[in-house]
Structure formats: C-alpha cells, structure tokens
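call fold(seq) -> tokens
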Amino acid sequence: MAFRSLALFAASAVAQFVPAPTDLISAKGYAGFNVRYKQVPPGICEQDPNVKSYSGYVDVAPDQHIFWWFFEARNQDPSEAPLTTWINGGPGASSMIGLFQELGPCGVDSNGNVYNNPFSWSNVSNMLFIDQGFMGAFPQYSRETYNFATESYGGHYGPVFNEYIELQNAKNISGAHRIKLESVLIGNGWYDPLLQYIAYYNFTVYPGNTYDYSPYNASIKAQLYNNLFGPGNCVDQIKACYAIGTNEVCSTADTFCADVVEEVYDNVLDRDEYDIRELEPDPFPYDFYVDYLNTPKVQSAIGAYQNFSEASNAVGNDFGTTGDDGREEGTVEDMKKLLDQGVTVMMYTGDADYNCNWLGGEAVSKEVGQPGFGAAGYVNISTSDMIVHGQVKQSGAFSFLRIYESGHEVPFYQPLVSLEIFERAIKGLDIATGKLKVTESYKTVGTSSSTFREGNSTIQFSVVNSTATFNTTTNAPNPPSKLGRRSAPRHKGKLFKPIST
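ret:
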C-alpha cells in the first residue's frame, strides 16, 4: 500500500490519515531497507492464537512505504513451511482483496464479524500479502526459495517481475541475497492484449461461453466484429502498439479497444465483467472487509497510517497513460524463460469471468511454447470431495487450468479446488491428481479441447439481493438474509485494469 500518490493503501478520492501508530518495531531487511512492523493480535484475521501474523511497512523511499501482511502456515512448523507471496492486479488493486475475499485465513460477514477460512492457502504455506521486500527482517521465515501468486493484471507482473529476479540471480552480484523462484501461479491473467481483446468476441459470440449465454443480437455481433477486425480498428491498433511501442500509440490503442470492444458488454448488458452469471450490482465476492479495515480497532491492530480503499484510480490512470494495458511487454516470452529455468508455471482461470476470460487465457497458453504442450490433452482435476471442479492441460512444469462455475477471483467461488491445486503446484506435483512428481516428460493425455458445458442454470436474470451469500455447492446465491448490507457493492468501475478518466 504505497503512500506515493496516495496509492494502493487508499484511493486519493477517499484517503485520509489516521492517528499514527506508535508501537511499530523497526528492523533492517535485505538491501538495507527499513521494515516497520507489529504482531497482529489473534482474531483480527487469523483465528488460531497459536498461528502468528505480522503487518507493517517496508520503507523503500522517503515518500514510498509498502504495506504487507504476513501469516504463518497452519498445521506445520512455519520455520520449515514454504513461502508464497501474493500480489493482486489492477494496476492499483490492493492485495487485501486476495487476503479477505479469496485465499487468506479469514473473511468478514455482513455484520462486520470475522470468520475463519478453512480453505486458506496458509494451510500449506506461509503467506505474504504485499500491496504493490521484507524477509531479511524475519530470518525465521526467510527462504532460499519462494513461490509467487497473483491474478488479473498479475499476468503482466508475474512473468516480468520474476524473470527480472532470475536475471539478477544469474549475475551473481557480490553481497546480493539470492532468491530461488520455485513457482509462479497466475489466476485469470491479462497477458497479451492482442489475443485477449479478440477473446471478448470469442467468449460472447463465437465459439461462445460454456454457459449457453449468447448476449448480443445480430447487429451488435456485427458491430463488435468490425470494431475488432475492421481496417484501423482494435486489432490493427494493438499491432501498431506492438510494432511502434510509444506511450501515445499504445494508450490510444488500448483506450479504443476498451471503449468499443471490451465495454460493449458493459454498455449493453449491465452484467458483471468478472462473473457473467451475475447482473450489476453484484454482491460477490463480499466487500464487507473494507469497512472492517477502516475501524479504529483494526487500524490500530495492524499499524495502519491511512484509511483503506480497494483500489487506486491514480495508479490505474498512471499506467493507462503509458498504454501498458495494451502492451504484451514480453509476458508470454518470460513465462517460457521461467520454465526453461526450472520454474513451475500454472495459469488457472475461472470460466465465468469475461474480463480475463479462459478462452483468451487458453490462446495465450498455446503461445508460451512449452515442449509437449501442444500434444497434451485436457483431463479432469481430481479433488478430495470427489467432485470435478475443472480440467487441466499440462506438459512438464507448465499447466493451464479451466475451473468450472467460477468468476474472476477463483478461490472465492471454488475454494477447495483452489487450495488443492495451489498445494500441488508449490510441491511440484501433477495438477490433475497431486500424486505424481512432475518431470520434463510428464504430459496429460486427454481431449484436445475442454468441452464441458455448464448450461445456464446458474445465470441470474434478476439482480441478486445485496444480503445474499454465495453457495459453493450449488454455485449460485443462497436466499437473502434479513440483515442489511453494510457497504456498497464492489463492482463499480474497473478495479482490475486501468480506470479511464
């Protein structure tokens, strides 16, 4: 949660400082960065008093202070457990989204009460949530190896950041701390705009989504096709961005494509981009934690300096002016480089997400160039509940997953399979069963495409009551409660890609 531009910890429109904490402990991290932190009391998030958590800031510059929250692994010795870093996308989205809405140790209900998440990824790993560092201040948790998990715009962050780290390792810089990357996991990532803008057409028109939901009439379909492929339109402009690469060309291309390709969906349907099953306002995933984080009790417990917001328009718009959203930036190539260096790479996608949809992700997976991937096939993912929650295509350490009945934030909608595929990936096991140690020759043998169709039984054709909860067994909303909702619906604007002004 950087302070610069009031970014990440609070959007500039609503940010305000709170009484400064006086009980933060200071320590030196790697590269001499100052780390300020405190131990978070049990019950603020993690409910088990025997499992520790810490939060605080890394001071990376006089006016830049990055917020983080660390949780020990449950059910094991945390000094021996793996370490995983989680960063949300955006740009400008807080990693508290991942913590409270998806895969952290807790969530917050409509009454503002904290509840335990039995499917937290901290069940199998120490978890460090970073708001867009640190381990030298906590040698008991420091590792020579680590795992990196992200989602959405993390399709840019994940490959590029980690390939940069691998390049620095290769230089053997005197005095530098070597960090060996074990795995990169990316949920519903935004990697290659050329392929993924086209996938908006693929998902809504042809071949279409697997929910048997065809949202557009013939006129809109034709308009969308022309907006993509017509002379000088989206595809041509993105190709020009790739070829020329200036901020002006790329920002113009991305704005054009977002306005007349991606946002046709929003203008026509008023459905949630991150889950086509729901109309706006969509109450899922729950955002009650936003109010919770802004209570004095919690702010004091975690050592916060500012009020919290989920995303920063300033950061999103700063990225937008460079056209970064419209660039490929070597993301696909860097995934291949990481694989060549022995890193596990897993692309997992919820198939109800429109924004970074699975058809676009699948197209990207085919471009990575992992040996044997083209000949691999889709197989069911086996899980402990004996329910098929999705399919995987894997060759060696590279896998692409389609998770059924899931929106953009997969661990919210399908928590059990999310935890199990996470554990398999960080342990180097096959994603399909978790029983085999993956080797270079490992390959799934199955169908060339993933053909399962959910149908439209979970598509909502009226706005879901704001007090509803999501049923991960029926994959649909539960009946509404009589309790009032304490905060406004989350899905306003574009929290996971740059927000245009």
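The two ends are 22 Å apart (CA to CA).
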